[in-house]
Design goal:
The chain is 26% helix and 21% strand. It has 278 residues and is of the alpha/beta class.
Length: 278
């Protein structure tokens, strides 16, 4: 792996370009959350975004993969278009996060399990005041989930279920009985993306990571609450009618993000974009 941007001592050109596996510490430094955020994870909300990131405000980043022709999945899953380096970055982003947010359909398709504690990130998480592993937060309006799965019955920290006030009462009760923490983040049957971000931040979960799927990411984009996109560009072509990384209603005016970093390995590009006002 090499850094193409920003230019560092790991950036060269031609045949001398470094081709080695980065350590997890190097990846963690490359993908660190803003220092202002990690300095005070439990502080209050409501800072003025125009003043930069105030301590205690939330930071929502997304991690997605796309082929050259824009497919976010193959046969319904992201794994076929991924690679070993992409999975190391996937693990690193989880190792840095307070909470991993996923839509119910992604949880079902990808077979989500509880996030595990990893020794490689233990010291870094302890220094940042984090627990041994991130919580998983599942976004669902219908509450159509199997609460007997390990994601709900065997997590290191309780799994959160983000839903609306109009969700079926019996399903809310079933979630709580399984040990999940139900978070109301919408007035009707659906979840309000901006409110979901605020509700999680209010619980001290300010370093937020969403892994999709495309419908959920599209909702975060449309709500204007996505701060950062970590996008792996896979050197593959799939054709077909696979989803893009973000779906749903479009925004009125496209929102501009700037390139924060660019890594490369074996033709895969690992990009990191940040919103211009973040």
């Amino acid at each position: 792996m090499r850094s193409l941007f920003p230019v560092t001592d790991l950036t060269t050109t031609g045949p001398a370009a470094p081709d080695r596996e980065w350590s997890l510490d190097e990846l963690a430094e490359a993908y660190a959350y803003p220092a202002e955020l990690t300095a005070a994870p439990s502080a209050g909300l409501g800072a003025d975004p125009s003043a930069g990131l105030a301590a205690g405000t939330s930071w929502l980043r997304a991690n997605m993969v796309s082929t050259l022709d824009g497919a976010a999945q193959h046969d319904g899953r992201s794994q076929p278009i991924s690679c070993a380096a992409d999975m190391r970055i996937f693990g690193t982003l989880r190792g840095l996060a307070d909470v991993v947010i996923a839509g119910a359909e992604t949880v079902r398709l990808e077979g989500y399990r509880p996030a595990r504690a990893r020794e490689a990130f233990a010291a870094r998480r302890a220094a940042a005041g984090q627990g041994p592993a991130p919580a998983v937060a599942v976004v669902t309006g219908s509450m159509d989930l199997d609460f007997s799965l390990p994601l709900f019955t065997e997590p290191l920290v309780p799994t959160l279920v983000l839903t609306g006030a109009g969700a079926p009462a019996d399903r809310i009760a079933a979630a709580r009985k399984a040990g999940a923490e139900v978070v109301i983040a919408g007035d009707g049957a659906r979840v309000d993306p901006a409110r979901a971000v605020r509700e999680l931040a209010g619980r001290g979960l300010t370093r937020q990571l969403t892994e999709g799927g495309p419908r959920l990411l599209g909702q975060f984009v449309a709500a204007g609450v996505l701060d950062e996109l970590c996008l792996t560009i896979s050197p593959m072509l799939t054709a077909g009618d696979a989803q893009r990384i973000a779906g749903g209603p479009g925004v009125t005016v496209p929102e501009r993000f700037f390139l924060a970093s660019l890594l490369e390995e074996a033709g895969f590009l690992f990009t990191r974009y940040r919103r211009t006002d973040s």
